[in-house]
Amino acid sequence: AAIYFDYDMDEIRADQAAALDAKVPILNANADVRIRISGHTDERGSDEYNLALGQRRAASVRRYLSARGISDARMEAESFGEQRPAMQGMDESAWSRNRRAEFSVTAGGNPLKVP
Protein backbone atom coordinates (compact mmCIF):
# COMPACT_ATOMS: atom_id res chain seq x y z
CA ALA A 1 0.00 0.00 0.00
CA ALA A 2 1.19 3.50 -0.77
CA ILE A 3 1.94 6.14 1.85
CA TYR A 4 0.37 9.52 1.07
CA PHE A 5 1.72 13.01 1.75
CA ASP A 6 0.33 16.50 2.13
CA TYR A 7 0.98 19.11 -0.55
CA ASP A 8 4.66 20.14 -0.74
CA MET A 9 5.51 18.07 2.36
CA ASP A 10 7.75 15.08 3.06
CA GLU A 11 6.81 14.39 6.70
CA ILE A 12 4.97 11.16 7.49
CA ARG A 13 1.38 12.09 8.29
CA ALA A 14 -0.11 10.68 11.50
CA ASP A 15 -2.84 8.93 9.49
CA GLN A 16 -0.17 7.19 7.37
CA ALA A 17 2.07 6.01 10.22
CA ALA A 18 -0.13 2.97 10.94
CA ALA A 19 0.32 1.73 7.37
CA LEU A 20 4.09 1.99 7.76
CA ASP A 21 3.99 0.40 11.21
CA ALA A 22 2.15 -2.57 9.68
CA LYS A 23 5.09 -3.16 7.32
CA VAL A 24 7.63 -3.53 10.16
CA PRO A 25 6.62 -7.03 11.39
CA ILE A 26 6.44 -8.26 7.80
CA LEU A 27 9.94 -6.97 7.08
CA ASN A 28 11.20 -8.41 10.38
CA ALA A 29 9.71 -11.84 9.55
CA ASN A 30 11.34 -11.77 6.10
CA ALA A 31 14.95 -10.80 6.75
CA ASP A 32 15.97 -11.62 3.17
CA VAL A 33 13.56 -9.07 1.67
CA ARG A 34 15.02 -5.93 0.13
CA ILE A 35 12.72 -3.09 -0.85
CA ARG A 36 12.74 -0.05 -3.10
CA ILE A 37 10.83 3.00 -1.90
CA SER A 38 9.72 5.21 -4.78
CA GLY A 39 8.77 8.82 -4.07
CA HIS A 40 6.18 10.58 -6.23
CA THR A 41 4.65 14.04 -6.48
CA ASP A 42 1.70 15.68 -8.12
CA GLU A 43 2.27 17.68 -11.31
CA ARG A 44 2.55 21.09 -9.68
CA GLY A 45 6.08 22.48 -9.50
CA SER A 46 9.10 22.19 -11.76
CA ASP A 47 10.50 18.83 -12.82
CA GLU A 48 13.67 19.45 -10.79
CA TYR A 49 11.74 20.47 -7.69
CA ASN A 50 9.44 17.47 -7.93
CA LEU A 51 12.32 15.02 -8.37
CA ALA A 52 13.91 16.44 -5.21
CA LEU A 53 10.59 16.35 -3.31
CA GLY A 54 9.97 12.75 -4.38
CA GLN A 55 13.45 11.83 -3.15
CA ARG A 56 12.79 13.53 0.20
CA ARG A 57 9.52 11.59 0.53
CA ALA A 58 11.23 8.27 -0.17
CA ALA A 59 14.03 9.16 2.26
CA SER A 60 11.47 10.10 4.93
CA VAL A 61 9.83 6.68 4.66
CA ARG A 62 13.24 5.00 4.75
CA ARG A 63 14.19 6.92 7.92
CA TYR A 64 10.86 6.01 9.52
CA LEU A 65 11.40 2.29 8.88
CA SER A 66 15.06 2.49 9.91
CA ALA A 67 14.08 4.10 13.23
CA ARG A 68 11.91 1.01 13.81
CA GLY A 69 14.79 -1.41 13.33
CA ILE A 70 14.78 -2.13 9.60
CA SER A 71 18.35 -2.07 8.29
CA ASP A 72 19.19 0.71 5.83
CA ALA A 73 21.05 -1.90 3.79
CA ARG A 74 17.69 -3.53 2.98
CA MET A 75 16.16 -0.36 1.54
CA GLU A 76 16.84 1.90 -1.39
CA ALA A 77 15.09 5.16 -2.16
CA GLU A 78 14.39 6.69 -5.56
CA SER A 79 12.26 9.46 -7.00
CA PHE A 80 10.04 9.62 -10.04
CA GLY A 81 8.79 13.12 -9.24
CA GLU A 82 5.65 13.72 -11.28
CA GLN A 83 6.60 11.23 -14.04
CA ARG A 84 4.39 8.31 -12.94
CA PRO A 85 1.02 9.60 -11.75
CA ALA A 86 -1.23 7.10 -10.00
CA MET A 87 -4.28 9.05 -11.16
CA GLN A 88 -4.86 11.44 -14.05
CA GLY A 89 -6.57 14.74 -13.35
CA MET A 90 -5.93 18.32 -12.40
CA ASP A 91 -7.79 18.54 -9.11
CA GLU A 92 -7.14 17.67 -5.47
CA SER A 93 -8.66 14.18 -5.74
CA ALA A 94 -6.03 13.26 -8.34
CA TRP A 95 -3.18 15.26 -6.82
CA SER A 96 -3.71 13.69 -3.38
CA ARG A 97 -3.31 10.17 -4.88
CA ASN A 98 -0.14 11.19 -6.71
CA ARG A 99 1.67 12.56 -3.62
CA ARG A 100 2.90 9.20 -2.40
CA ALA A 101 5.66 6.71 -1.70
CA GLU A 102 5.30 3.19 -3.09
CA PHE A 103 7.11 -0.03 -2.28
CA SER A 104 8.49 -2.81 -4.41
CA VAL A 105 10.37 -5.93 -3.36
CA THR A 106 13.75 -6.07 -5.08
CA ALA A 107 15.05 -9.31 -3.51
CA GLY A 108 13.88 -12.17 -1.32
CA GLY A 109 10.42 -12.83 0.04
CA ASN A 110 9.43 -15.56 -2.34
CA PRO A 111 7.03 -16.35 -0.76
CA LEU A 112 6.59 -13.77 2.00
CA LYS A 113 6.26 -15.21 5.50
CA VAL A 114 3.30 -13.85 7.45
CA PRO A 115 4.40 -12.79 10.95
Task: Walk me through this protein's architecture.
By secondary structure, the protein is of the alpha+beta class. 38% of the residues lie in helices and 21% in strands. It has a four-stranded mixed sheet with strand order 1-4-2-3. α2 (47-67) links the parallel β2 and β3 (75-81). It is elongated. It starts with a strand and ends in an 8-residue tail after the last strand. The mean pLDDT is 96.
What is the share of helical residues? 25-40%
CA-CA gap between termini: 17 Å
- How many extended strands? 4
Strand content: 15-25%
Structure class? alpha+beta
Mean pLDDT: 96
Overall form: elongated
In N-to-C order, the SSE pattern is EHEHEHE
Radius of gyration: 14 Å
User: Sheet bearing the most strands, described?
Assistant: 4 strands, mixed
Strand order of the largest sheet: 1-4-2-3
- Which oligomeric state applies? single chain
The helix tally amounts to: 3
* Spans where pLDDT lies below 50 across 5 or more residues: none
Write a brief structural summary.
With 115 residues, the chain is of the alpha+beta class. The protein is built from three helices and four strands; from the N terminus they run E-H-E-H-E-H-E.
